Amino acid sequence: MITIRFNAFSFLKNECKEKGIECPNKNMQIDEGVNLYQFIKNLGFEEDKIEGIFVNHKLVPFDTVLKDGDRVALVPPGGIPNHVRAYVGNTV
After folding, report:
1. 33 lies in which domain range?
2. What is the CATH number of the domain that holds 41?
3. Range in 36-40, 64-68, 79-83 the model is least confident about
4. Structural contact between residues 74 and 45, judged by C-beta atoms closer than 8 angstroms
5. Per-residue pLDDT averaged across 45-66, rounded?
6. Is the C-alpha dihedral spanning 25, 92, 62, 65 positive or negative?
7. How many CB atoms are closer than 10 A to CB 16?
8. I need a surface site. Which of 2, 37, 83, 84 has the fewest CB within 10 A?
């Protein structure tokens, strides 16, 4: 098991609370080797509910494998500014 610090923004924060998932800034234990696709599925979210995921303050691809101590934040659709979307292209 590894420990990450979890956060969600905007309406995703409310959906987490409805699902019984504590946030913001909640330490969570997850299995080692889990990528972000698996992580959001394990939380009960569909991919279309999440525009991007920040890990350690960087927008990363959904196939990123989480590591012990990572800080993870889910961003809903429309939550990433246009200039950042243009910068990251199709990586998320």
Report:
1. 2-88
2. 3.10.20.30
3. 79-83
4. yes
5. 91
6. negative
7. 21
8. 83
